[in-house]
Design brief:
CATH superfamily: NAD(P)-binding Rossmann-like Domain
Mean pLDDT: 98
Bound molecules: NADPH dihydro-nicotinamide-adenine-dinucleotide phosphate, 2-hydroxyethylsulfonic acid
Structural class: alpha/beta
CATH architecture: 3-Layer(aba) Sandwich
Number of domains: 1
Order of helices and strands: EHEHEHHEHEHEHHHE
Oligomer: single chain
Strand content: 5-15%
Low-confidence stretches: none
CATH topology: Rossmann fold
Radius of gyration: 18 Å
Length: about 260
């Protein structure tokens, strides 16, 4: 595949970091974003030194529309030629029945997973329209396909990503922009640590007794989705570990 510019939100850990690695390893220039600047700088140095590609790190919070707009509008003309946008930054916060839900958790998930994705897309889409090409990959979830107990608002935000992905594909059709959604099931990243506010034991239990997806598994699929010929678009791709059938059916003690 010809050299591309890949813009990845949430590249300081998990899927985003693994995606930055695989794209850089294959010779592509990457824009990596997140809030933890030390991690961005470290990843930037590693990728540049290891793979001899260009890496730009942008430190911003996707929930802050002004920061998002400034960072993207201030890109040089060279970096504005974004071929692939991967809307990956996201999180779950808490796991409670709706009647016990915490407002600040709900707001964090809605602001990050839905509004953040929209803020970034709003800035990048015009750049792609200008160039009459581009590929947007939204990271959804199995939680965006079915609702599970206590998943309420997180599931709702990922159902919104599902709907936004379908809507983007229709609206951007006339501009030659591909839109794909990748929906992973349980994958061991910092996701559960974030969901359970750093409770290591609780986070570990999520992956007990089976082999979950890894960040690399998801990154390899994202790479595959971008490497297909121009006339081919993966619209929607659900992937789980072999031990997982859907959001609620996981074969534990299968390791
Ligand atoms: P991680 O917690 O490992 O990574 C999340 C990334 O999102 C980090 O780089 C984090 O960067 C970034 N991020 C979170 N909030 C913000 C924000 N407000 N502004 C900017 N960046 C932000 O989790 P995963 O890699 O697992 O998750 C990536 C995506 O995949 C999420 O959208 C998640 O919902 C989804 N997903 C995860 C699954 C899983 O089981 N792990 C399964 C299905 C989907 P920083 O903290 O530095 O800002
Ligand atoms: C993350 C997968 O099942 O924890 O999106 O919601 S799950």
């Amino acid at each position: 595949m010809a050299k591309k510019i890949i813009f990845i939100t949430g590249a300081t850990s998990g899927f985003g970091k693994a995606m930055a690695e695989i794209f850089a390893q294959n010779g592509h220039d990457v824009i990596i974003t997140g809030r933890r600047n030390e991690r961005l700088i470290e990843l930037k140095n590693t990728l540049q030194n290891k793979f001899n590609v260009k890496v730009l790190s942008l430190c911003f919070d996707v929930r802050n529309q002004k920061e998002v707009a400034e960072n993207i509008q201030n890109l040089s003309a060279e970096w504005k030629a974004i071929d692939v946008l991967i809307n990956n930054a996201g999180l779950a916060s808490g796991l409670d029945k709706i009647q016990n839900g915490i407002l600040s958790d709900w707001e964090k998930m809605i602001d990050t997973n839905m509004k953040g994705l929209l803020y970034v897309s709003k800035e990048v889409i015009p750049l792609m329209i200008q160039r009459k090409k581009g590929h947007i990959i939204n990271i959804g979830s199995t939680a965006g396909k079915e609702v599970y107990e206590k998943g309420n608002v997180y599931c709702a935000t990922k159902h919104a990503v599902d709907a936004i992905s379908k809507a983007m594909r229709i609206d951007l059709l006339e501009h030659g922009i591909k839109v794909s959604q990748i929906c992973p099931g349980a994958a061991e990243t910092e996701f559960s640590m974030v969901r359970f506010s750093g409770d290591t034991e609780r986070a570990k239990q999520v992956y007990n007794g089976y082999k979950p997806l890894t960040a690399k598994d998801v990154a390899e699929v994202a790479y595959f989705v971008t490497a297909l010929p121009q006339h081919v678009c993966i619209n929607d791709l659900v992937m789980t570990s072999t031990a997982q059938a859907n959001s609620t059916s996981i074969l534990r003690n299968s390791k």
